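Data availability (excerpt). All sequences and predicted token strings are deposited with the supplementary files. A representative entry, beta-mannosidase, is shown inline so that the format can be inspected without opening the archive.
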Amino acid sequence: MTSLPKNGFNIELSGSWQLASADGEIRSVITLPGDAHTALHRAGLIPDPYFGRNEEKVQWVAEREWVVERSFTLPDAEGDWYLDIDYLDTVASVHVNGFLALEADNSFRRYRPDVSSMLKKGENTIRIVFASNVAAGAARQKQQPFYIPYSTGNSPIPDGNMLRKAQCHFGWDWNIAIAPLGLYGTIALKKLETARIEHVLTRQTHNADGSVELQVTATLFAKDPGIAQLYFDLDGERVRLDVGVNAGETNVNHVFQIDNPRLWWPSGSGEQALYMLTVELPSDSVKKQIGLRTIELITTPDAAGSRFAFKVNGREIFCRGANWIPADALFSLSSEEKTEDLLQSAKAANMNMIRVWGGGFYEHDWFYDICDRLGLMVWQDFMFACNLYPSTEDFLENVAVEVDYQVRRLSSHASIALWCGDNELVGALTWFEESRRDRDRYLVSYDRLNRTIEVAVKKALPGALWWPSSPASGYLDYGDAWHADGSGDMHYWSVWHENKSFDNYRSVRPRFCSEFGFQSYTSLPVIKTYADAKDMNVASPVMELHQKNAGGNERIAGTMFRYFRFPKDFPNFVYLSQIQQGLAIKTAVEYWRSLKPHCMGTIYWQLNDTWPVASWSSLDYGGRWKAMHYLVKRFFQPVAVAAIPSEDGKSIRFSLVNDTLEDVSVDLSISILTMKGERKHLKSVQAMCAPDAACTAATLDMSEIPEGTLLAWHFTASNGMGGEGHYVNGTYKALELEPAGLSVIREFFEENGSIDLDVTAKGLALFVMIETDVDGKYSDNAFDLAAGESRRITFTPAKPLEKGKLPEFRFYDLHSCQSAD
Ligand code: BMA
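Structure token line:
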């Protein structure tokens, strides 16, 4: 929803404000929307929080109270005026000319206090006083009837569960812990002329004849009764209504009849047709992008338990995606452009779903506009994660208003698929001594919160797709959805958090896996932005501070010992961590996709990073692709072939998955690769796969792979897709790899600034990875070459290169990574 400024009715208050600590000791300017840490850093008052160990040096910021202030001129203060504020983070009071206009404590609500009596003609001041997040959390914890535990492993800054603000602000197992504060949305003074638009809600009815009725409900708010001129406009079809409004809220409906609708489809399943809806008063206006589609969640019982499948426009869609965390730990460092780039990378890697995880934000409208355009369905959590929460009346009331606002704000987006109660709150009941000792009390308390959310969702949007929690095995099921795979969605963390082997992913058959992940280091060029050369050692204090999961570095290194020979130096350690991350997630996805339609979704943890850190992300902070993201693009391709070993390890099955609407036939060529890089043809197979299905294209006996060789294949599909892969029977460390003998020819194209790299191998080159400090994307990466084979890779820099300054490229491959020769 976009509110359009209307001349004379809207006084923008965003821009430059004065920022000061409440005692006046520290002063600078702050740009709103924005956060205090970035303002202080830009003013030179604190060091860059992301560099080195500066996180430790900036802790005091969250302990203080802060004041932001500005003045504005009002040519005429007559009439009714209100402030329009959202994303106010968090416990804050707003004062206009010294009068208290608002006391806010929920960054997920929109506030519109009436300030008519506080304004004057000429110069006015507005000031926002932010309580310390640390102090506000502690004070609220004290007021609870009983202690409400929070996850100390995730949140070094305590009591974040008391505050309605991004939970990862208090730290997370991938986030910097600095409890930011500020205002990240709208701040404006608006005139109420007869009425304003409070909400716009849409509902679609898809008729049997294919036509669609789009019912638009505008909720108008007025102080006094009157007549408002209201316009509804859908792609130029414009209707004017003169509406009699009462004091308070008035609902006005209009139905658009669309006889030949263009439907909205998820990426890969059809076009993303969008209509533009405008609801307009002379003094206010709301725009919404509308996609016409039906969406259902199929949970019918079956022999294994019950299904978990999304059906869009009558067609089941296998969901391929990743979890989204906030684009940046500090709002001022994020932007619509950067977010679009991250979401584009999701689409480019063949995703069709994003899960907006419950420890961050309900994102800005433009985030969902982008998802609508890209065809990324959104699994939307409510913002509760991994903690226990209060269930006092005031807290639940606050939550109910938040839910009502967010559901009305976002539900018209075609991309919004599911509303989910929270992230991992059921599991969290088992994490704390208090809740283990007195499960009854904490479970009832949880249910009160969960019920409040559910009731508010269904009231705001009857018929909304609702799922109580992620993971959950079903309605009112408080079992262990981390390990139970028969029904519901699953968070499968046994490989990372329980140190199981990659093969262990094949021990479960999820219906829908909404979280599973494996860490890697962020790429070397990103490490260079926070670590000096002397810190480039995985056990250095700087690198340890940029690893937030206790035991994470040990897990990465331990896993490497399990599968690989030890890398020769730090850059190769980083490289290999990314390859092993990709292999872990590939193992899971390939197997679970092959179970289709038993399994209907794989959403790995996590797409992006909030700052430069070791994490489970496939994109680096800043948006570069880690090695894994190139693998994701391949293993999420709608038509994909994978080699999956049997449980007894005696045979290998080539699974063929087809997520498209058409039959596909595939030409599969299977070969053996020797350590010298010779490719020896083994067999050619032709296979067919029905639309929206998975099948077995071929099966080999493991004995057909001679010792000391690899199995390799490539395929082309009748729809033009294709791919390749290799399989190691055993571990990579057991292979006596020989030098890859890579050589490269570079060619620079001035017209578009891209660089072509022709990479040729003399021997076997596995996981060839090209890297440069210059930001940019590669047409492909982390690929294999046999002896004599070459590949042309195009590097497109993010910004045009300076003339005559070609970047230096580094090349990695598995052999050179693990050996000094
Ligand atoms: C999941 C998430 C996050 C966390 C991740 C990695 O459980 O919900 O809380 O960051 O695991 O541990």
